[in-house]
Amino acid sequence: MKEIQDVYQYSLTKKYRSRLWSKFVKAIKEYELIQENDHICVCISGGKDSMVMAKLFQHLHQYSDFPFEIEYLVMNPGYSKPNLDLIKHNLELLRIDAKIVDTDIFEVANAQDKSPCFLCAKMRRGALYNIAKSLGCNKIALGHHYDDVIETTLMNLLNVGSFQTMLPKLRSTNYEGMQLIRPMYFIREKDIIAFKNFHQLQFLQCACKFTEGVAKNNNTGSQRLATKKLIHDLLAYNPQVEKNIFKSASNVTLDMILGYKIAGKKVSFLDNYDKKIENDSNSEEDE
Question: Which residue among 8, 153, 155, 270 has its CA within the 20 to 30 Å range from the CA of 147?
Fold first, then answer.
C-alpha cells in the first residue's frame, strides 16, 4: 500500500472534502477570489482557522489549473515563547513553510490606557499589508469563516444599529493594488473543529494578554462569544436562523428600507419616493 505523504492534506480532500475542500473551492469560484498570476499572502495567526486555510491553499496551489504564487506568513505581534513555540511546532507538523516576521505590536498596544484592542487590531492590519506588499503580494488571505460572517452581521445590527456584513473580498483604500480575500467564507467552524479533533491537533485559542483569559475560561465577556451563544439559542426559535442571517446580506430589498450608504454618502428612501410615483405613473400611461 502506497504511503500517504501528507495525511492532513489527504484528509482535507477525502474525509472532509464536502465540508472543507469543496466549500473552499466554491467560495473562490463564486466570488472570483483568485485570478491567474495572483501573488497571495496567506496569513497565519496560529489559530485553527488560519492553519487549516494554509493547508487548503497548499493543495489548491499544487493542483490548480492556472498559475499563482503563495507566501505563507506568520506576523508575530509579540507572542509569548510558549505560544510562538506552538505555532512553530504546528508549522513543522503540517509542513507549512511560513515566514515569521517579528513586530512589537503587543508591547505598543498594551502600553496604551485607552482602546488598546482597537490600536492592536489597527496596527496588526497595517503590518500585514506592509509585509505582504514587501513580499510582492497583491492579495491577503484571512481565515474568517461562515460563522464569523453571521456573527459580524448580527453584532453590527444589535450593537451598532447598522446592517453590514463581512465581505468575501474588498479592495484596500490605503494600499493601492492590494485586496483582502476570505476563501473560507462558506466553511462552518464546527467542521474546522472536527478536522482539528480528528487529528488531535492543538492550536492557539487566544494569544492576547487582554483576552486570553476569555478563551481559557470560556467567559462570555467577549462580545463575539456572547453573539455566538445568542445565535445558538435562536436555533430553538428557528433551525434556519444561521442560514437566514447569512442569506440576508445578499437579499436586501432597497425599496423597503429607510436608507442606506454608498461610497460614504447617505441615501434616504425619501430621495426617490416621489420619483417612484412618477415612474409608476409613466409606466401606466405607456400601457
Answer: 8
Q: pLDDT digits over 202-223, tens only?
A: 999 866 655 554 445 554 458 8
Q: Which domains does the chain have, with CATH numbers?
A: 7-146+164-211 (3.40.50.620), 257-286 (no CATH)
**8-state DSSP, 262:** E
Tell me if residue 72 falls in helix, strand or coil.
Answer: strand
CA angle 115, 118, 123 (to 5 degrees): 125
203 burial via Cβ count (<10 Å: 0-12, 13-18, 19+): middle
Is the torsion defined by CA of 108, 114, 120, 126 positive or negative? negative
- Give the pLDDT confidence score for residue 1 in this predicted structure: 33
**pTM given for the model:** 0.88
